[in-house]
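Predicting holo structure, zinc ion bound.
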Amino acid sequence: MRIPGLIDPHVHMREPGGEHKEDWSTGTASALAGGVTMVLAMPNTKPPVTDRKTLEATLSLAGSKARCDFAQFIGAGAGNRETAASLAPHTAGLKMYLDSTYGDLKLDNMEDWFIHFQNWPASSPLCVHAEGPSLAAAILLAEVTNRPVHLCHISLRSEIMLIRAAKARGIPVTCEVSPHHLFLNCDDIPSISPGRSEVRPRLASRDDVQALWDNLDCIDCFATDHAPHTPGEKDSDNPPPGFPGLESALPLYLTAMSQGRLTLDDILARCVINPRHIFHLPEQPDTFVEIDPAARWTFDAAKSHTRSGWSPFDGFTLTGRIESVTLRGKVVYKNGEILAEPGSGHNIRSELK
Ligand code: NCD
Ligand code: ZN
Ligand code: ZN
Ligand code: ZN
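Done. Tokens:
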């Protein structure tokens, strides 16, 4: 069965500064192995991407190493409220961190939130990491500044309820959910181990997970939030939050399809059509994924292409497997092997310079 290449609007490629976890070459290999042919990369690198110089450096690394198509977010900081907007055409969009997570991009000052919402062009995506009460703040900011906002990795019943109400009032909000918030809950923490289970937002209750499934019509996108860290880091006394997710996501969705919990249209709306509209992404000609929706197999993190080399879904029995991926007419993945060269991926935004 043939489906379009997937778009993942929320991944962490870790380069520059975190190459021991992932780099553009391994991260985009992981994407292709997961049927993802376009990724939007987050700015919480080291250094973070917040200005022309760091954007240029990151795009240059991506241009020479990426194996799938890409765009790079710029991070909202206290120091770039007036200058970030001029870079908008060269970015995936602006990313704002309203709550604590991995990296140093948290914005504490509400005035910074407001000015960034005002200044970032309404025609370019603005994404927020906002949990609970700050999610309510982000929705109000979208309303009063009259611009769209995309809410990253929402996970709670209270959040999806508020998003439903905001959409009903015509406030321009869209949201994404990550596979770990659909297929794992806090009861899974002991079996994954407490350190490895660390993720932001945290794994939620069974009731929260059920609320996401019950309100699927309000979920615009599925996004992996592929956030690789090494097993050593995850097992340390100070485990960083985040899961790799690119290679398990589509098989998990296909497994849910085999159980009658998702339809193929549900999946393609959230992994291709809606992200393309929300993030203003081009179509990829001659780009598709061959899947065997009936194949039963066991997910083995040791065989994955991400440098992080582990997965919270290790050992899961899945129904639905990716056989091959074709990007712009070239077979880039087949039977477990990556065939795309580093640098063959395209920046889908306008080039800087
Ligand atoms: C992400 C990371 O490691 O970069 N971690 C996570 O737990 N989700 C940061 C983020 O997306 O919030
Ligand atoms: Zn986040
Ligand atoms: Zn993230
Ligand atoms: Zn090319």
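The two ends are 42 Å apart (CA to CA).
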